[in-house]
Amino acid sequence: MDNLTIFTEFVLMDISSSRELEILQGLMFSVIYLGALAGNLLTITIIVMDSSLHFPMYFFIGNLSLIDFGFISVIIPKSIMNSLIGSKLISVKACAAQTFLYIFFGSTEIFFLVVMSYDRYVAICHPLYYGLTVTPRLCTQVASVSWAGGLVNSAVHTGTMFRLPFTVSNVIHQFFCDVPEVRSILSQEVQFAECVTLSITSELDVIIE
Fold it and tell me: pLDDT digits over 97-128, tens only?
């Protein structure tokens, strides 16, 4: 125990060994990131401003655009900054925040895709009852449940993975805190707890869906 090393920072993988290529990658990611942000913001703005698009399908598409906006903002800006300044480090707290938001937006997106599948099923198979079944109140409720479900799922998994210090390794073989990579450097105790948590939440997701 006296020789136990507790890591406070993680070392991320290099995209390229060449400094020039790293800068080029940072600039390319910046252009792609700004384009994705503009596209999602434009989609959300059009849906909100155009009253002819105030229907359940577009309501859910607007939420998906918001999720995508958050999803890419969790990973890409940090990667761009690391590429431009030549850094490979990320603190444990920053990695925990990145993991939490990554799982949050990913889980919420899955919930919304399930809801949108049901919405399209009703619209195609029961068009006469669509207006009575998929009401604005129902849309608001299922959207709230989807966001809350993603939040709870993310909090449980992130809390499980980061509840103990990292002592096995601090090398992440990815350019961001990818969940499988973070799991691979957990202690055996935490890995077991995360596997149990993953099994339970997966069963709950199947039941809910």
Answer: 999 999 999 999 999 999 999 999 999 999 88
| Distance from C-alpha of 11 to C-alpha of 32, rounded to nearest angstrom | 25
pTM for the model: 0.83
How far is Cα 64 from Cα 182, in angstroms, rounded to an integer?
26
Which amino acid is present at 103? I
3-class state of residue 49 by DSSP: helix
| 57-64 own/partner pairs: CB under 8 Å, 24+ apart | 57/116, 57/119, 57/120, 57/123, 59/139, 59/143, 60/112, 60/115, 60/116, 60/119, 60/139, 60/143, 63/112, 63/143, 63/146, 64/109, 64/112, 64/113, 64/116
Within 10 A of 78 (CB to CB), how many other CB atoms are there? 19
95 bridge partner residues: none
67: which 2 tokens? 């999720």
